[in-house]
Protein 1
Amino acid sequence: MVGHGFMGAAHSQGWRVAPRFFDFPRPIDMAVLVGRHDPDSSARRWGWGEAATDWRDVVARDDIDIIDIVTPGDTHAEIAVAALAAGKHVLCEKPLANTVAEAEEMAAAAERAASVGVRAMVGFTYRRVPAATFARDLVAAGRIGDIRQVRAEYLQDWLTDAEAPLTWRLKKDLAGSGALGDIGAHAVDLTEYITGQRVQTVSGILETLVAERPLLAEGVGLSGTAAGERGAVTVDDVALFTGRLSSGALASFEATRFRTGRKNALRIEISGSLGAIAFDLERLNELEFYDGTLPGTEQGFRRILVTEPQHPYAGAWWPTGHALGYEHGFSHQAYDFVTAIATGTPPRPSFADGLHVQRVLDAVERSSEASSAWTAVEN
Amino acid sequence: MVGHGFMGAAHSQGWRVAPRFFDFPRPIDMAVLVGRHDPDSSARRWGWGEAATDWRDVVARDDIDIIDIVTPGDTHAEIAVAALAAGKHVLCEKPLANTVAEAEEMAAAAERAASVGVRAMVGFTYRRVPAATFARDLVAAGRIGDIRQVRAEYLQDWLTDAEAPLTWRLKKDLAGSGALGDIGAHAVDLTEYITGQRVQTVSGILETLVAERPLLAEGVGLSGTAAGERGAVTVDDVALFTGRLSSGALASFEATRFRTGRKNALRIEISGSLGAIAFDLERLNELEFYDGTLPGTEQGFRRILVTEPQHPYAGAWWPTGHALGYEHGFSHQAYDFVTAIATGTPPRPSFADGLHVQRVLDAVERSSEASSAWTAVEN
Amino acid sequence: MVGHGFMGAAHSQGWRVAPRFFDFPRPIDMAVLVGRHDPDSSARRWGWGEAATDWRDVVARDDIDIIDIVTPGDTHAEIAVAALAAGKHVLCEKPLANTVAEAEEMAAAAERAASVGVRAMVGFTYRRVPAATFARDLVAAGRIGDIRQVRAEYLQDWLTDAEAPLTWRLKKDLAGSGALGDIGAHAVDLTEYITGQRVQTVSGILETLVAERPLLAEGVGLSGTAAGERGAVTVDDVALFTGRLSSGALASFEATRFRTGRKNALRIEISGSLGAIAFDLERLNELEFYDGTLPGTEQGFRRILVTEPQHPYAGAWWPTGHALGYEHGFSHQAYDFVTAIATGTPPRPSFADGLHVQRVLDAVERSSEASSAWTAVEN
Amino acid sequence: MVGHGFMGAAHSQGWRVAPRFFDFPRPIDMAVLVGRHDPDSSARRWGWGEAATDWRDVVARDDIDIIDIVTPGDTHAEIAVAALAAGKHVLCEKPLANTVAEAEEMAAAAERAASVGVRAMVGFTYRRVPAATFARDLVAAGRIGDIRQVRAEYLQDWLTDAEAPLTWRLKKDLAGSGALGDIGAHAVDLTEYITGQRVQTVSGILETLVAERPLLAEGVGLSGTAAGERGAVTVDDVALFTGRLSSGALASFEATRFRTGRKNALRIEISGSLGAIAFDLERLNELEFYDGTLPGTEQGFRRILVTEPQHPYAGAWWPTGHALGYEHGFSHQAYDFVTAIATGTPPRPSFADGLHVQRVLDAVERSSEASSAWTAVEN
């Protein structure tokens, strides 16, 4: 695994725990953790066999089968392309890359690799929250009919405080974009996953609400100590956009770090001719389902606890009604990826899926610069 | 109408509004308001044709068809019995009476009156909240199967403040009982109404949490200005009891004025072999319904907005999704009562129903005095 | 009162009930109901003294002080301008008019009338739901700090069925616009009311999801029997738009009749630097308030039951915890309007406010025709 | 660790994961899994170093420091007493034992062991859900004032189906009791933990709703295949009881496996003179808090997402808003237990705490047999 921030902890937990609950086709050995700055303590803490500082060395090793990339987005392309070229299966955290050009390069590399059985997958883990997977199943089974409208939003509030420091996630050169790429990407992917459609044109606006923030004195991750000086926020705080899906239906999106009181609210509501589904990541064990084919007096949004043995993934864990948490999606991802490798199945979301999401985000940026004019997503 | 407290306002609103939305078989004339202390201003305010101070005079009048009794419970029996004897149809606010003996007398009078086509009904209006009526319909149609358990509670918090004054509702001689009779009665009636069963034996405890309160200097109703002296609270603040229904199922009850933060939470949840229903008066336009016959992965409590034209009473009011309020039940009650009179149908809840509720409350009091031993409800 | 559709019933209920609960400075006499087709039965049902077929006759009468207009939007301007010219106070249901030009004419007439003490008000009653008024009070008191973002949506689903008939609300010549003007107008007004700001530029899209529907054989109002032939839907089913407020904050809007399972969900969430408020008309007795100045571990959205005596309007009705319904706003409106007339205070929302909303809607239409380009709202 | 059912998986997950997120004072080695029937596969699956079939052998080993007991309740006493006598620290899953006598023996053994620094703890892990711990903190800090009432319930529905098989949990000789001991014990412990008080007298009833069930053909755990024959259910399906706490306040309890649609709803609401708290295990990342000291118009139940770094345990895991699941409590338990051992602090809940809960359950059984008469809990 390359990288050791917050995502490193989450992926490590996935690799460590998944084999205890799912029947893996091959044993998992958490071999090497790669980090530029003192990876040893992280390796020990998270249970990796050894630590290294240069990912190139690890990619070159014969005893490594899978490279899991959890570094910031600006380094994804170089590592992934090299790893795939070296015949390693690659799991790459989202966003696939910071630019469309890099993402295209990666998708091309993944396609080449696939021809020799080497697999690549991008880490939109929220697809693997059981309620989200079950939502996809209901939609795919026609339970809500033709899709009429989608509302997808990812609401956070950690920038509400105008004195919150300028972390790497607020700098365009490192993060690529702000709320749009960090969390808006999830909203787009989840929409495309559950609907089975693609966003084809967009109209939107990006906005930076607090233009300058205190420089970060020290610390990493989502927070850190504020220093005296200030620097410019070079990414968006809020992204509001509308997209037209393959079927012609409109989907309305919002990604923001300024919705006070909303901590991690990735929500999606899909309205169809026969019903609707609604999901909120802040209550990730629940799915709301409205069945419009029931008698008129009995229709209503139904709160389904997605913890039954027959629900996706849920049977491997605890009895009915016992909640799963944020990190379980990483176990599901690890299991699905290894299973896909073993069975020779192309895993999803593919790098092509990830590239498409990047292109949607890119089209939003271009629309925002063009007075929100409708802008085609590249193919 | 006899009486002019808070209930007088609610009943007046019912009589005034109902004929605008429901097709009454006979025209309604709000003739006389009776009150001991200056009924004129109330009569003007609420739209009664005239005011009087002695109910006996009104009961004796030929031009009066219906007597609506909204006085405190200690006067119900005398007025109702006299009115029925005079051939007036009687709508009597709950509780039917402050003692079982009085209630028995009233029920006997109602039975005699019925033989000559004179009708009597007791005012448990919460039966007539559309969601509650619809819950009864679902249960009666077998949609939740055999009833396994009932939880019914009526939670308020207006006595949480130990310095709240000693109103008439806290004195046994006027109010009969405290939380038990005032709000517990609703929980019992709603349980019996929706299940179609009767509570037959009970075990319970009554408790007064704050034994002394400031005397009320002036003011009436639910609140009032506190004076310097203190007096004893002679009714219960909390009633906790369990009852066994006709079918053998257990129902657990709570009536309290000390559940901090709960303002008017009359809630009932009925669990059956095929499903469940849940209702909360604080969200009175909603009914939750769990259908256990759906596929296992799709079961969940469904929030039904009970505002469809096909729902009970709802079609007479506003379009789908437009909320009704507390007072609409009084219109439904007025309409149902007059319709029953016109069609010669015995209206429900009858005085016999009201007597039965009194007997349940009485059995709870006796159980409480007997170390909560199981105590039969009289027949 | 001129007009006798669903809004006629609601306004009649307001005029009838309000004086029973609020102290009106002048007595209210529900004198004449005007309707083109058989107004007599409506007049009787709703309690108007007499009926008439030509509003011009009524406007000319000396014994009429107030004209309440509840006809479809295409007739508002003519009636209102004539009534104001005749010295009648005018309450006009929203939308103020079907075109900006008409609305401008009305606002000008209202301004002229105001100079001689004749008052005009537009009927955005949702401002007068206690929870909405209280939200405005909290925002005005600075409890959520500087406004950072607004999300306002009005979600219905009564057109989800593609076979629902072509009522007058789906025809541009009668209704002016579709979801945009009918319900989007409420979302705009509520946003401007609570924030105290105005929408200044917009970017948006209007969409008709079902282009043809069965002609309406008979019946009026929101539903009706479907005939064999089909006609074109000439208004929008869905309106998605973003607006920039006076302070620069972005507000995102959605008005739709295709959000399956949402019956009457006028929702607004306002995020500020110190807190947030959230409201949903489907639970109109509740307001959610997030206070970001509390200790970090104790912050959360707080469900306030807006039924306390100290809450706006609530004290005039029932005790704490007793729900109000949809129609109570019409009583509040009647009371506020008459009070404004009596005290010589300009009532709000004024015709100028209503005109501004029309201009916002107009800008949305123009933006939609210009590939969603940002478009200034006229001044 | 001794035992390898569902609880074995949960405890293993706790031991495995906790050291990755918490700083343990001593390294953890998951040495031996003991099981009577083929423990090898469980040991491999859950990551134990080796497997054994006789716990006596393991208790005798010098290289073992901690014995974690997750067997059915009838074996707890023998194992725990022997382990403590051998100087092993003991973590014992709840209920402490199936009889009060056994629990007394265990508590005595724990007291003896404590005098030589050997520690014993009982596994009421729900105390260690961050929201529950935080609830305790709020109550201890006086934020809800004097406790006035408690409602604690643990609702499940897995026996609603009358054809569900007769598992060991339905046999008195193995399980000790039914809903009362299995889940009612959690409701009692959580009440005592959060309030800091003890249940001193009780009145209650135990009820078996389905008296006979199909014998279990094969399978273990919560479900299993049904065979043709039937056997008697010898434990309670439902337990309803009221307890009086040390302060005199009443607490009302319900434990049931027949509340249709409720999957794992351990709920507690504590009402105090200054506020209230409410918790539901089905939404375990949330705590509702009502602060009665706020201005009257602003009071309401506040949904706190208990995922802030300053909340108990939460800071060790993921960023704000990222949900924890059922199993995280087992990590917290492992960490707290090892920390208590290392620092020489008596861990809680102690065996004495567990014994007290058993005595409460025993008093409920005796009350049930005595017509629900109030019955003192032994000391």
Protein 2
Amino acid sequence: MEHPIHMPVFQGDQPLYLQLYQHLAREIQQGRPGAGKKLPSKRRLCTMLGVSMSTVEGAYSLLLAEGYVRSLPRSGYVAAQLHDVQTQPVPDLPPAPPPSSQWLYDCSTSAVDTTAFPFSSWARINKDAVYQNPGLLQPGHPQGDEPLRVALAGLLAQYRGVCCSPEQIVVGAGADYLLSLLLQLFPLGSTVALEDPGYPTAWSAVERHGHRPVSVPVDQDGMNPQALEQSGATLAYVTPSHQFPLGVTMPVERRSRLLRWAGQAPDRYLLEDDYDSEFRYASRPIPALQGLDHGGKVIYLGTFSRSIAPAIRVAYLILPPQLLARYRQVFPQSACTVSRFEQETLRQFLVQGLYSRHLRRSGNLYRRKCLIFTQALESCGNLALTGQNAGLHFLLTAPHLTEPEMVERTAERGICVYPLSRYCHQVPPPPSTVVVGYAGLPVQQLEHCAALLGLALAPITPPPGSEPPDAPP
Amino acid sequence: MEHPIHMPVFQGDQPLYLQLYQHLAREIQQGRPGAGKKLPSKRRLCTMLGVSMSTVEGAYSLLLAEGYVRSLPRSGYVAAQLHDVQTQPVPDLPPAPPPSSQWLYDCSTSAVDTTAFPFSSWARINKDAVYQNPGLLQPGHPQGDEPLRVALAGLLAQYRGVCCSPEQIVVGAGADYLLSLLLQLFPLGSTVALEDPGYPTAWSAVERHGHRPVSVPVDQDGMNPQALEQSGATLAYVTPSHQFPLGVTMPVERRSRLLRWAGQAPDRYLLEDDYDSEFRYASRPIPALQGLDHGGKVIYLGTFSRSIAPAIRVAYLILPPQLLARYRQVFPQSACTVSRFEQETLRQFLVQGLYSRHLRRSGNLYRRKCLIFTQALESCGNLALTGQNAGLHFLLTAPHLTEPEMVERTAERGICVYPLSRYCHQVPPPPSTVVVGYAGLPVQQLEHCAALLGLALAPITPPPGSEPPDAPP
């Protein structure tokens, strides 16, 4: 005998067949009809509900395919025997992270000034790259398309003294992604030496990939070699061009000492993160450590997210020969994570000379910003600056205050600076020091921001009313 | 006294200052001049070499910044004391992987027919998305921009019965990337149950992330629940809509049993990889397992690389509330790996209804391809097909041959099919069976390909000259 069913209520945008399916599936789950009992025939359901035969057939075919009903010859559909589905309450969604506070000035080290970017050229090249290359819908080379890798190898030889074949380059969607990929090439439980202070994200990435991070202190020349030698590490992560966050540059003597360390065992490597090497103000950009390496010991990591824009998710890893072989073994069938259209757009941007021109312009812009900002800060007195000869951030020290006082006082003025302690793991942070990025601050407002910082960090709290003039528009 | 230096030979494209720097750095490394000895003055070097002062200054400033020379007041530059740089021979590059052989027909399971893709609409939308949104150069939401996530949540509710908030979605550059991200949310050493046979890349990803993969056999209803219950796993990776590679669909009883398993411990989860759920021929698409989950136990993974094109690197992960909280804790400052311009292009493609239209058209195309191909194969006799009611591949069994014989014989005809054993870990592969994908084969050549397969897999080797007619153009 056919079992009576509750009538569904059709509402909303979903197709009727799907709504009918969901209604019947729910009914069967709740035992209406019970296991083995018949459902209405398709024709009868059409008449009952006033819907088309294709709606009912769509719903019944889903119920059949999913196993809610079985089809018996000459008796139509009967409900299947179902196990109880656990219906625990769904936990509430975690609260969304607070929106990035409305700072007057955020001195983030990862901000970039995109006003210098030749956006209309990029858009035009992108348009042509897409329209003219429908073939790029097909899978490309796992390491990134060869023409882009050839252009990158040329660019890196010219600008960074990097010596590599395009075959050694792996293009990927951001430096974090490529670091994750690289860490998967090392045996689980490898010891990785990290600069301290250094990038917190590198530390946590090493841990998440099942390796053992070891803190190695940074001195005025970069990673301390004695500590590295004692660390037992197989991989050392360094930022030789402009140490993050201290801003020191590694001299060649230290570089050669690190290379010697790496050369002393076959499985030792140096990872050179050249994150903001494009920008150097006191001298021309310093060639990469990679170019000094004659033993296949340096892995080089670079990105366009600072030199072009954060939203352009293209970074590149250069693997020495032995790690390249390991990469091909571990990731035999991976797909490149960067859209081939974006790869082709970037390639044209490079080979047409637009990138070089953009680097010159943005370098000049950042040099000017750095000069205005640091001069204004130095004129405040009582503040010491270090690491300002390169990159897009520097350290600011106010010897008469503690680090938390500095952060708190600047926050009261609406300015976000970053405590140096947040980049320290085991090394005690240099006292009274914060990290200040300036790339994202508008050039007209640098002096205003500096004046506010000067007031906030003055040795004696200034009397009320001693505000600097309003910021320029 | 000033030390004589070898004259540099300038050649190639590199700027002169860089060539001069490299030459002098090499000289100093080789002890010319020795430590503490003077280099020529800048002015003298200009005259000696016939280059401009800015060339010499560029080179000297690099040497100084890198520590090759020191600057002494009133005596100019002297060479620094350097350690020997190890100069082991660089290992040779590993041989490049062989180029994908020139198969007549490659029955890969990951190929896609991009001829059905409305490329000109995509290009037009992309052009507008870029030109009209220079603001997208700035960093976006780590999980992907909200408008895209809203569109995805709507699409998934309508097409897949997935029930989620846009807040739960994480957009990323491909399913492999998102699987890697997900695996980093579980404590190291977690036990992960994997379908056997199943995706080999999932197995190796689990291992690379420091977890323990466990093989769970697949029966005619999908992952075997008793074996799962005994596996000790906290995460089970399943493909309920169309098991890869067997092609079975998991009925609701099995789904509810897996959900019950997940509900029995607070840290148990199911990962539903819905990789090709868009394509189903015998019934309408089957709603996702995720939609049955009322306890926050199912993680859902989807991708556009099959339904749009392999080069569109956009996939999405839906995290249940507890894992979303963990994700925000583990990746507090990550950047989304998909270009914001591509995110906006995809969003418009979805909300303008172009994706729905494309799915209908490509679904019809694949249905037609499947029908032509499977009918042609069935007419060969002696061949059995399974799993052809959904997705873009099926299993082909030739009971009179071994699996290696099948692969070898088809290869002799220029056809690449995939041995089922390659997807098996501990479970013995069903005998005499290969995996055949057809999405990438041109529709006019399916009958020719089937005829060749029929000849290759015939019980008796056909006499010479029994070739099928030539392939259509």
